[in-house]
Amino acid sequence: MSLEICLSFVVTFIISLLLVPVVSKISKKLGIIAHTNKRTIHKGIIARTGGYAIYASFLIGTMIFLKTDIQINAILIGGFIVFLTGFYDDIHDLSPKLKMLGQVAAALVVIIYGDIALKGFTLPFLPNFISQAIAIIVTILWIVGVSNAVNLIDGLDGLCAGISIIVLVTISLTSLTYGRTDISSLSLLLAGAIGGFLVFNFHPASVFLGDCGALFIGYMIAVISLLGFGYKSSSFFTLGAPIVVLMVPIMDTLIAIIRRKVHHKSFSEADKGHLHHKLMFSLELGQTKSVLILYAVTILFSICSYIYLYDKIAATILFLTLMLLFEVFVEATNMIDRKYKPVLTIMNIFIKSEYLPSIKDTKPYRKIAQRAKKKYAIILIVVLAIVFSMIFMINQNNLPKQTKEPVTIQYKEASHETELMSNIYNQLQTAIERNNKTDMRQLIAAYFLTDYYTLSNKEENQIGGIDYFYSDKKDDFTAYAKNGYYKDANTMIHNQTNTQEVIKYDVLSNEQSFNKALSSELQDYSYYDVKITLIFNEENKILKNTEYTTTVTLIEKDQRFSVVAIEE
Fold first, then answer.
1. Which alpha helices (H) appear in 178-209, and where do they start and end?
2. Is it the case that residue 16 has pLDDT exceeding 90?
3. Which domain holds residue 370?
């Protein structure tokens, strides 16, 4: 993690720390306070616009640390709409329909203007335009759903803010694993702003988030996750990983919807059946312990999401275990209904406890038992068929498979090579002929960096070094480059100011890296770090220097080397 990204967290944290008391004091003078009712658990006069300080701190941080582009602008415009909607609700109490309208408007801004939506979403046997329409609908539902899910868990001191920080830090770490420093920086800017607020919001709270803060945080988490978390753009990873990280607020929201439906209540009608209420009142844990437990659960789900990058089986086992424990808690505390206890009922078949519900006492059991007596033969046939099918599949998997010839990595010459690139390429061909792997590594790294940082020979939308990057990660690398070094490249090419060219390089080190697997599918290969200093023909307008030192990470596969990461 770079110093600048860490500094962004610290700066927004300090700004928020200074702004929260000021905002709180002004809110109290203006009468924007949290009113007590049968659902609230706080006492005294407490300002409800702490989210204003978070929003202001985040904006200041973006101006200092982020380079704006269309996507960032779209996110900020949508965020302003959501914040304004929540802020107005904190003062005048908007109707649920108008609040929803504001959130949908913000979602449409990031979709239409920012082109931020669920990517790679396709349905079989359907035209692409229908799949794209469904993807847009899912994107809107995701943004609105996460915004409201985060808002719904804002029921105890420090709960929403703390969980949001955990989620954002997880997003940041995951993004850095795939080199997406833009997503990481955006996440930590917001995490820092929330952290400064949390100092005053932890029990006993002196200021509350309000809808302006909770809805804005939820909106930002939803939109940041749509940027891809640094994963290769696919419908599963774009939403799959965030769903795991956000499992606490998402499950709490889904259970609230089911609970209110079962009891014939409106979704907008508040109650005391949420997770934090059950911990605090049903288990009598109090505010602090309840909040810390939910922090711990969120951390476990976050760990689960991060582990998935390296060990899918371990992550899946952990996730299923957590979900089972979650379901047992829901049934034991009657979060949905007193009669809803399917898992506890099944568990009691083996435990046989008088304190747990018995399956024999239920009407559905008696009906099933009567039908089953007449269908034993059919059930037996189905079971045998499943068993034999599984045996057949296992035997098929154990049959020797035809091995494919390994695909040889081809090192291509870039179009419009510079003199230095041509020299490096000729040396590389000699190193390949001699099978000198040490020279191959440093020459591949040098050619990649020279091509990547040289703009004088580039056409519009051309990314240098792309042919030397690991094939399965080229999409990630392209997205990374477009949001980083190549963000303003097209403008420079159009204005004919793309005169930057690497004219010399020095290899500082070329050594193997240990325990550096960047993803689970590449964990069995050898990694190498090549540190190189580049020298430009003039001051690089992007890097603001005539010299630049960086490290390239390569992977050895099929006795050839590919670039898999670049340090900036």
1. 181-201
2. yes
3. 362-392
Report the C-alpha gap between 21 and 45 in whole angstroms: 14
Give the largest CA-CA distance in the chain. 87
* CB distance 209 to 506 below 8 Å: no
Co-location of 15 and 160 in the same domain = yes
102-114 pLDDT, tens digit each: 999 999 999 999 8
* Residue 141 falls in which region: left (phi positive, over 0), alpha (psi -120 to 50) or beta: alpha
Of 231, 256, 278, the last residue of a domain is 231
192 and 48 both lie in a single domain: yes
Provide the CATH number for the domain around residue 530: 3.10.450.50
Q: Does residue 185 sit in the same domain as residue 108?
A: yes
Within its chain, how far is the Cα of 236 from the centroid?
Answer: 12
Both structure tokens of 372 = 């089953």
Q: Which of 451, 436, 415 is nearest to 534 (CA)?
A: 451
Q: Looking at the predicted structure, is the pLDDT value of residue 55 above 50?
A: yes
Do 374 and 463 reside in the same domain of the chain?
A: no
- Tally the domains of the chain: 3
User: What global pTM score does this model have?
Assistant: 0.64
Q: What is the pLDDT of residues 402-426, one digit of tens each?
A: 443 334 456 778 878 898 998 999 8
As beta bridge partners, residue 565 has 553
Report which residue type is found at 299: I
Beta-carbon count within 10 A of 91 CB: 16
Closest CA to 217 of 174, 267, 154, 264: 154
Task: Check whether residue 369 and residue 445 sit in a common domain.
Answer: no
Asked if 328 contacts 312 with a C-beta cutoff of 8 angstroms, the reply is: no
Residue 497 DSSP code:
-
Q: What is the pLDDT of residues 508-533, one digit of tens each?
A: 998 887 655 555 555 667 888 899 99
Domain limit, last residue, from 351, 374, 392: 392
**Band of residue 383 on the pLDDT scale cut at 50, 70, 90:** low
CA distance 490 to 509: 33
Question: Residue 42 falls within a domain, yes or no?
Answer: yes
- Looking at the fold, whether 95 and 7 belong to one and the same domain comes out as yes
- Report strand pairing: 502-513 vs 560-566: unpaired
Q: Say whether both 490 and 376 belong to one domain.
A: no
Q: What's phi and psi for 70, nearest 5 deg?
A: -60, -40
Query: What's the distance, CA 401 to chain centroid?
Result: 37
Among candidate residues 85, 86, 157, 73, the one with its CA nearest the CA of residue 113:
73
Is residue 319 situated within a structural domain? no
pLDDT digits over 450-468, tens only?
Answer: 999 999 988 888 888 888 8
Kindly state the average pLDDT of the residues 222-248: 66
In a domain, 310, yes or no: no
- DSSP annotation of 337: -
Q: Which two tokens stand for residue 522?
A: 């590449």
- Evaluate whether residue 514 is within a structural domain: yes
DSSP-derived 3-state class of residue 206:
coil
Give helix then strand counts, H and E, for the chain.
20, 4
173 with 38, same domain: the answer is yes
| Packing angle of the helix pair 159-177, 235-245 (nearest 10 deg) | 140
State the DSSP string of 157-176: TTHHHHHHHHHHHHHHHHHH
pLDDT tens column, 144-166: 999 998 988 887 888 999 999 99
Do residues 525 and 553 make contact, with C-beta atoms less than 8 angstroms apart? Answer: no
C-beta separation of 501 from 536 below 8 A:
yes
